[in-house]
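Tutorial handout. Part one gives the primary structure; part two gives the three-dimensional structure as tokens.
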Amino acid sequence: MDSPIYYLIVFGVVAGAANVLGGLILFPSRLHDTYRKGLKYLLALGAGFMLAVTLFEILPKTIGIWQGLYPGHDSLYPPMLLLLGGYLLTQFFEHTIAPHFHLGAEVHHENEISSRSAYAGVGGFLIHTFFDGVSIAAASLIDLRIGFLVFLAVFLHKFPEGFTVGSMVFAAGKGRREVIIATGIIGLATLAGVIVFYLVGSKVDGAVAYALPIAAGVTLYVAASDLIPEVNHHGGKRPLVSLSVFGGVALFFAVHFVVHGLFEH
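Part two.
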């Protein structure tokens, strides 16, 4: 089911705006301190939701598409290789090209970093924020309901993501203007991913079959290798933080049944 471009633009704009708002939580400090207390719970909720979306929506659709393209051919090596490629691509850009930062840890003066390191970190986010947009568009071109669920998964981690980017820029000695610019850039990368893939995927046959598993690998990486370790790091001995991951999974199933129940073909 093709979805109109204006739906996708709304998804991309809202997701990107959440990046900017996440960075602006740094100002003023009182609001920043309040937000940090709830950050670990939002991280956990988003991690659970993203894991569930990847395993119960994106991956099954990927397998179904490839089986439809090659009926009678039971090898799933190509899509699984693309999924692994998306996962490793994110690893390369986030932790090889750019340094890794714990969410929210850079706002302290003892953690001051250089401007070069901060902007390298921002650059490391661009690949997965772009594929956030690709994920939304590719899923929406298959079924708008699935696209909406992927959008929610992306949206839930956009605030912590913007907060992280803003923290890096802030720790490099920059101010509100630079924080807005940096978070705006990663937000625009998501919108660019939506628009670019819509333009390509709606015109090139088979584009979704190749883009969706790559996006699944990126999404799986963000959930399992970025968010879950941060949840464990920030959660400490608070079991409620870990339980929030399960809450994210439960939230996915609740929204899934509502969306699929209300908007049956």
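Part three, for discussion. Residues 103-110 have pLDDT under 50 and may be disordered. Helices lie at 5-24, 29-69, 77-97, 115-142, 144-171, 176-201, 207-235, 239-262.
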